[in-house]
Description:
Helices cover 44% and strands 12% of the residues. The chain is of the alpha/beta class. It has 4 domains: 5-121, Rossmann fold, CATH 3.40.50; 136-314, Rossmann fold, CATH 3.40.50.300; 317-405, Helicase, Ruva Protein, domain 3 (Orthogonal Bundle), CATH 1.10.8.60; 418-491, no CATH class. A 5-stranded parallel β-sheet has the order 2-1-3-4-5, sandwiched between helices. It has a 5-stranded parallel β-sheet with strand order 7-10-13-6-14. Strand 3 (50-54), helix 3 and strand 4 (77-82) form a beta-alpha-beta unit. Helix 18 packs across helix 19. The radius of gyration is 24 Å and the shape is globular. The two termini are 23 Å apart. Residues 124-142, 390-413 and 469-491 have low confidence and may be disordered.
Amino acid sequence: METGRVLVVDDENLVCWSLAKMLKRIGHLVEIANTGANARLKLESFSPDLVILDASLPDVDGLQFLEECKAKDNNLLVIIMTSSFHSDLAFQAFSLGADDYIGKPFNIDMVEQSVHKIFVKKNLVKDVGLPQAKLRKKYEQDQLVGNCPSMVELFKIMNTCAQQDCKTILVLGESGTGKELVSHGIHNLSARKEAPLIEVNCASIPENLLENELFGHEKGAYTDAGTREVGVFEQAEGGTVFLDEIGDMPLNMQSKVLKVIENRKFRRLGGAKDIATDVRIVAATNQNLSTMVSEGTFRGDLFYRLNMMCITLIPLRERKKCIPSMVEYFIDRLNSEYGRSVEGISSEALRVLMAHNWPGNVRELRNSLERAMMLEKGKILSTDHICVFPGSEKDRPEGCHFGCSVPAASTIYLPAGGISIEEVEKEYIKQALSRYDGNQTKAAKCLGLTLDTLRYRRKKFGLEKYPETPPDISTLAAESADQDSSQVFPG
Length: 491
């Protein structure tokens, strides 16, 4: 299903590959360019609707290329990516017409949400014969899965919030528990479902841009403000505003959001009068707001107003009875996404999943199953491709032999000064080769690479002789026999 044409411009092959894979999965046509010169050619030949652009290219400044894109077509959508996040660069990018700003390393789910939001906002999502409510259900709300008592209670609370038209809702929970899905679920169950639901990540927008994002501005409010622009509270009139990561909102902005909650009015930057607004505000965070209030880093009056209707999401480790139904759902969903026909999961593999503590919650479970389904050739998911990483060796379930722990000496930590993504890639290739005693076919499958791609990268990183202890004859024979049947993945 084609929803748009996206050009990814980045000189890092791994970044291009991961973005292209995600974009194609959700239905976009994708082209890749590694230099500014190549990107200029693709602008002519491919005519993209959206450009995802790295701010640091080898032959051209990313902001300069952004200006070129906008000069060619002012309606062209642009997302800027950079590994050196700072507010001045973000402000400059937005002032030149960028539609969003993403820092590296990025969360692929957040990039997907950004792309989806931009296409919806600019009315570039094409009518594919599905009502909008069904489109939302397919991609978002139907991921709220579970039949344990805590999930049943959650669905009841969500329905109450929706039917009673609660104007202010606070959603608390660890990362990956589904806070965003709760906000979408409440919106879609309510009488506001035909009005917009607009999401704002309070942690990803610099303080000097957040007020403009929420409230908009009048013409001439600041330099380069050539036209009036409406903000999120105006765009979402009659609908829902989802303030994600509210705990990271600056104190100055907290007072202005409190005013909106209390008076149901706001004022654009540079404006002379208040504007009434009718929106539901759903705020979410994985932080302890009551502790932040006592420490003075979050306003107590805002917390008490938000806390009028509070929904606390239980981490997956405390509701493991939901895992079997989640696994069944994700297998069905991923079968549709990847054109697979996996019928279920083995009892041993399910036991591995039930034994894991899931620090990444439902998001981690989905990613583990997605990876397993990409590698599994049979009809039943086995432990061969179930890969989880508990925090300590004692968490490792008996009999689970596939990557359930990583030796402390091999674990990669992100240093304060950053790290090269190629070093990360090299380290994982070394770990895979060590795990399978040099068997390239199995290492390639573990990493989701083709055999040729793994060989190329071994040569690139000088790992042709790694590990130094050669595999025995039986291993080499097995590798040779498996070569023709190895699963192919983009590399």
